[in-house]
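Fold it.
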Amino acid sequence: MMQVVDIESMYIFLLLIVCVAISHFVNVRIWRRLYTFKHSMTEILLKYLKGSKTRSFLRLIALGSKLLLALSISLMIISPIVTEYKVVKVQVEKELSVDVRQMLRTPVVLVLDASGSMLKEDRGIAKILVAKNASISFVESLPPGFIVGFIAFSDKILVAEPLTDNRSTVVEDIKGIKAGGGTLYSVPLSLAYSWLKPYTELNSTAFVVFVTDGLPYSSDVSVYRKLLPEFSKKGIKIYTIFIGRDEKGKAETVFMAKETGGKQFTAETISELPGKLQEVGKEISYTTTIKFKVERDERIEVKIPLYRSLALLALFSALFLWMLNIRLYKLVA
């Protein structure tokens, strides 16, 4: 810790010292008029100045008192401030963007709707076939630093491959999908969350890529929506792709992405799905976010004004000088 006294207007300080020093040598009659006031306590206080003290000695003490008074008043006028410099430890949370190729493991779970509606043809091609090929391309295009999980769902889990760095296994699982059944969002999302949660303990970002062409059962909407705050709390972002032109379906996937900090995409036709999946891949491949806390030493200033202490010193000096001059000029017997 270091202390620095900030003093300005030194000319005022020197001028007051000189003026008070000169005033000590003016005609004593001026001081007689200034010190004619007497108080009942005067006699008691002045007994400490009686005795063997000579007039020249008293005048010397008076000069010192005047200089002290001048010093106190001068410092009060220029208002000095003592500045203390302290070093304190500050904890800071930072976000660092890192190239994922430098990271060891970044988890992403691809969740693909394989309900009965995906068996329908779009421009002569079954949607599920295009979705399977697009999913394989997506998995294979992810950087080496990623581990991949895969879930195919309808109103139940059809295929579930936990997070792995063996992409050939994931590709085989995708090839073996057989579509059919209704649509439930809550079941695959709950499973994906259970896989990703352990990876979020180190505060690295985890991803879910959710592809669907339909809405969940009405009874499932409130169920799956209750899961979204948990994803958000753990930093798991859901990127959604809705296949088709259904505005309600788009709105639902927009809501899912917004609630978790992800992003929504729409493939109005199944032929657009491969391109949208590649866009998602680029979004999550280049960078991810790591949050960490660091401590650093920070130098802070603490300013302490001195005018109160100086005011007390000036008051004491004035009182002592008053008593001294009463004795010096023999205004009290």
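Residues 95-293 form a domain with the Rossmann fold fold (CATH 3.40.50.410).
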